[in-house]
Structures
1.
Amino acid sequence: MKNTIRIWCPASVANINVGFDALGFCLSDAGDEIIAERVDSPGIHLGELKGFPTPNKPEENVAFVAANSVYRAAKEPNIGIRLNIDKRIKPGSGVGSSAASAVGAAFAVNELLGKPFTKEELLPFCIDGEAIASKTRHADNIAPTLLGGFCLVVTQDDHLAVSLETNLDLHYVVAHQQIEIKTSTSRTVIPHEIPLETAIKQWSNLGGFTAALFKNDKDLLAYCAKDFVVETHRKSQIPHFDELKELAVANGALIFGISGSGPSVFALCESDQSAKAVKESFDQLLTKKEHAYHLYSGSVDKKGVHELL
Ligand code: HSE
């Protein structure tokens, strides 16, 4: 059994307009790193916490809570594991910062315990961690961070992560203007009830979106990726949302929307060339505006959380 393991915990885009709390995809150029090591003292311990600040009280730390859930479920009381976290994804940025830490920690502990659980079985333990930050049990960032690619979370009494296979080669651009929007706050602006006509539009488009991925049909994908439920309530919190949307559309993006609960926004493009044009246009706009910003770009990651060798 290994004594130390170094883990890549990727960022993700949740909702993708059409699947609030149910859809997400995995990023390839943004993530946290966690080094987990065996120690003598039994239990899970927090070690070095680098990068963006994260709580050092174990019960408030999403990584600790997720790791501890795995540990307790595996019933391995005589093993000690210390988590050293390099927090590179800014909390409150809208690209699944808390999910990345929760998934990375759960995965690392599972590896050091000799893999008692499959990746899919780790989902509820990761949600235990995510719930500390967002005050609700949702898995639309966790599922793609865990499994890679596009994922759908089927929710009834529990959660089931389904990988949505596609041969579409999609490229993303994410623009993060560095203001903080807490997911827990951002969820309060969304109405808890929606009219039946709106629900019909949204669930038919979610079905169309998942079909489009399997059929490799980019036109259907773009047609279906519309947000009838959330965008209108959240976009006013995001500076320059409409200008960014216009630029994405003008430069050929298939889809543009709010990444998770914002403030990041994302564009999905059918080619690297189109993504480069979108990224350049975002850069030209945001450089003239008031907030510091960071642009992420790359191909949708297909691997999810993994060991760095
Ligand atoms: N589905 C969540 C939301 C993702 O939009 O509130 C953010 O964690």
Note: The mean pLDDT is 96.
2.
Amino acid sequence: MTKGLFITFEGTEGSGKTTQLRLLAALLNKYGIPHIVTREPGGSRLSTQLRRWILNKLDYKLMPQTELLLFLADRAQHVGEVVEPALKQGKVVVCDRYSDSTLAYQGGGRGFDMKLLKILNQAASGLKPDLTLLFDLPVEAGLRRALGRGQGKDRMEREGLQFHKAVRRVYLEIARKEKGRFIVVNANQSREAIYHEMIEKLIDRLPVAKKGKKRA
Ligand code: Z5A
């Protein structure tokens, strides 16, 4: 069976990962590499509904346990309905947030036990990303960017500085432990500089590299 490549994009609030994800998708398009772009929460039909519940901007108190289980439910559906079928077709799957978000936000931010979260992640989906790009920057800088969008704050964005710092700390810890899977990109620079760093670190791992060589 041909297997595609599963790439996840992670980072704290306002890290610019979505901007870079779109640029990578444009590069894959340019080289005619079959791919899909998806995200969590929100990548399947069901999760479009779930997303409203999880990230609602209304003054509605969601229990941390409820939040965690909704993210996991979203993942189970998303992987089965969207990610695995695309990988089976040999596509590159580019996904905005995945299971490391659960470890960073529910573990670092909300304080759930890491061992428990790993078991729950495994229960929702045993699928591991082949590659994870972590866009890292000081949380203050990211929050300034996110606020600059002027869209109002969602539930996570309303959390305090300590919450977001704990999220960043967990991301960096996982990246240190899983060097083979993680590529850490300095997100505290211009869009263009981030893009160049991302491509430089990623290019040899992409099917683009093989296509480029064939054409040369
Ligand atoms: N979550 C969770 O808790 N547990 C889970 O298991 C999962 C998720 C899967 C999803 O939010 C929330 O769910 C997320 C974690 C939680 N909450 N937080 N925080 P979302 O999908 O609504 O959004 P997001 O994933 O958090 O994205 P973001 O932080 O809002 O944006 P971003 O992807 O990091 O960045 P961006 O959209 O590309 O850029 C943000 C702004 O900065 C935008 O105006 C850009 O034009 C600007 N930008 C981008 N790059 C630059 C540079 N280099 N310089 C200056 N300005 C820039």
Note: The pocket of Z5A is lined by residues 11, 13-19, 40-41, 55, 71, 96-97, 101-102, 105-106, 145-146, 148-149, 154, 156-157, 190-191, 194 (CB under 6 Å).
